[in-house]
Amino acid sequence: MDCPALWTVTSVCRKENAMPSTIRDIKEVTGLSLATISKYLNGGNVLPENRLLIEKAIEELHYEPNELARGLVTNRTRTVGVVVYDIGSMFNGTLLRHIGQALRKEKYGLLICDSRGDETVEAENIRFLINKKVDGIIVLPISRTAGFLRPVSEAGIPVVLLDRPVEGETIDCVRIDNRRAAYQAVSLLIRNNHRRIAIICSDEENEYTGFERLKGYKDAMKEAGLPTPPEYIRKRDHSIEFGYEAMKELLSLKERPTAVFMSNYEVSLGAVMAVNESDLGCPSDISLMGFDDLILSHIVKPRLHMVVQPMKEMGEKAVETLLLKIRGKGSDYATEIIMKTRISEGDSVLKL
Amino acid sequence: MDCPALWTVTSVCRKENAMPSTIRDIKEVTGLSLATISKYLNGGNVLPENRLLIEKAIEELHYEPNELARGLVTNRTRTVGVVVYDIGSMFNGTLLRHIGQALRKEKYGLLICDSRGDETVEAENIRFLINKKVDGIIVLPISRTAGFLRPVSEAGIPVVLLDRPVEGETIDCVRIDNRRAAYQAVSLLIRNNHRRIAIICSDEENEYTGFERLKGYKDAMKEAGLPTPPEYIRKRDHSIEFGYEAMKELLSLKERPTAVFMSNYEVSLGAVMAVNESDLGCPSDISLMGFDDLILSHIVKPRLHMVVQPMKEMGEKAVETLLLKIRGKGSDYATEIIMKTRISEGDSVLKL
DNA sequence: CTGTTAGCGCTTTCAG
DNA sequence: CTGAAAGCGCTAACAG
Q: Can the peptide bond before residue A151 be classed as cis, meaning omega within 30 degrees of 0?
């Protein structure tokens, strides 16, 4: 492999390979039985003198329970898995941070898998987590249908979807109302007397949120009796590149839109970049409405109007819902929890 | 909990809870012995007829090996753990993506833990991974000393550090030469005849990269015989907020610097935001040099000059090094691999 | 190539 | 409250 290593420093180090101590070692040291020690480890009552004995032994032997063995017999691991569609995206990263924090409060471990936008990898990730015997799974899916989740339901493992639902099966899901959020965003543009409004969104065939947000755009436009010519509807993928290219094209139209709704974070980034490179000013020449406030609104001048999702609450709610199911206190029915969005106002929308 | 759920849709769903099938079920169906089946599962040779028999049974029973049981006996899990200091940071996210990709090629599973910038959590994450019996660990540490890694060496688990080394023990590490990278960045500013050059960096007490980069800055300034007054050295934490505040302060100095070296990604974001909000133009009034090209250079106008690290190669190299150690082919000595950095030129540095 | 046997480290009945 | 014994699902000798 051609790797840019500049130079390499080496120094000697010792290799030690101590076998970890087991509950059996504690038995030897304390003279107690396995059962008693196990009971102590699981918070049961043991005589104070024995408790002290055990604690001392644990200390001395650096004992740590083997979670594999424990999981093998109890069939639970106090670990939940999360499958994200792209760990490099700030949206996923932010959600993961909140999920991790919420799980930690509940003393649950977290196991993260990245699907890298690939349905095959996504399905593999699911199986990986099942094999790791996680107690439950949170999925931010790329697949639009429930097929890849079959192994999970077969294994009887609780699942909660986050950000996007899937078709074909009703599964607990925490998300926003994408259609409504888009509708509100576009309506704001309309209220500011914009008539030529374009949208940049991800491909409706493959991407749930893109599809819904496009619907919301159309709802608002139709309600106001405004036209939605095909050249104003730019759809392809969920990428910075596309946002950039789409905005370039929009700006060069003879009938240039006066406002553009950039319907996801990546596309917003790319589109802003295109506007910056052009000779046009925002909002004087073009008004902008973005989606998902991940830093973007702060480092771009002027401050962007944008749709914001309550990411912390979404992560926490997903964890809460999942843990309820894990603990058997979940409802018998599937629940879709639809979080509120709001529009954060900046200076990127001109009142015409 | 007060959560902004707008409304809730519910629908009935069935709860099925099939016990997963085991190797024993396959034994019953095929009439073969456990050993033969196990051998097949692990890629050994079995008679073609038996192979077919087994494959059919696996298909029918939806059999998946229980990795917990397997790990318990083999003492390896074909899984590596990664501990990052902040999963919400794009730097970490990008590195993770490359690591995941590299591991996947080698058929290794990945287990990600987020330390959220907290040394206590970091130590816990390490123990979590040990208990999960991962075969090796990659750490992007926050702690500056090796103490938290003791359990790892006690357990005899291979470790590779990424991005930052630690003190107190020599451990394999993949990183850049931070001091040199900073030196080169500041030298470029000096070559453009800047004399009043400031730096924004993270706290030298607590943060390795911040410390090294500050040294590089001082090296370059000293070499050129330029002064480094305390008010030009802004150090605190690795945060957007600090970048913002520090730049505000720098811009309001009576002797305003003509160039600023923003020595990490978060600080670069914040600082750019401050410049954008001011009446000053870049590069006409102030020249900027950033660190880590994670989108930032594209969406900010003018395009930023920045130090870039070869993140893909770093992730891959860390994986490669770790796998060598896991497979026992690692060297007896610790290796520090220092990757090359380069400066990506934009339009944010004015030639005076 | 296949089968038998013995555990990996832990929890969990069930007696005492 | 404690101990003995069984077994979670799988692999790893060893015979055959």
A: no
Distances (CA, A) of A227 to A217, A221, B49: 11, 7, 67
DSSP state letter for B196: S
Residue A154 has pLDDT above 90, yes or no: no
Confidence of residue B320 (pLDDT cuts 50, 70, 90): very high
In this structure, how many other beta carbons lie within 10 angstroms of the beta carbon of residue B285?
A: 14
Q: Which residue has the tokens 């909660």?
A: A160
Contact A95, A314 (CB under 8 A): yes
Nucleic acid strand D: bases within 7 A of protein CB: 1-14
What is the average pLDDT value for chain B, to the nearest integer? 89
Name the residue closest to D11, CA to C1'. Answer: B73
Query: Is the CATH number of domain B178-309 3.40.50.2300?
Result: yes
CA A65 – C1' C9 distance (Å)?
Answer: 8
Closest CB to A72 among B72, B277, B335: B72
Q: Which helix (H) or strand (E) holds A305?
A: strand A305-308
Residue B96: pLDDT band with limits 50, 70, 90: very high
User: Where in chain A are the domains?
Assistant: 3-65, 74-176+311-339, 178-309
Residues of B in contact with A336 (CB under 8 A): 8-10
Residue B241 to residues A124, A190, B112, B235: CA-CA distances in angstroms? 39, 34, 27, 12
Please, what is the Cα angle at B62 between B57 and B63, to 5 degrees?
75
Task: Identify whether the C-beta of residue B196 lies closer than 8 Å to the C-beta of residue B232.
Answer: yes
The pLDDT tens digits for A39-85 are 999 888 889 988 998 999 999 888 989 999 999 999 889 999 999 99
CATH 2.60.40 corresponds to the domain A3-65: no
> Residue A308: what are its φ and ψ, rounded to 5°?
-120, 140
pTM of the predicted structure, to 2 decimals: 0.88
Give the Cα separation of B98 and B94 in Å (integer).
Answer: 7
What is d(CA B129, CA A62) in angstroms, rounded to the nearest whole number?
16
Mean pLDDT of chain A: 89
Does any CB of chain B come closer than 8 Å to the CB of residue A269? yes
Chain B CB contacts of A339 under 8 Å are: 3-6
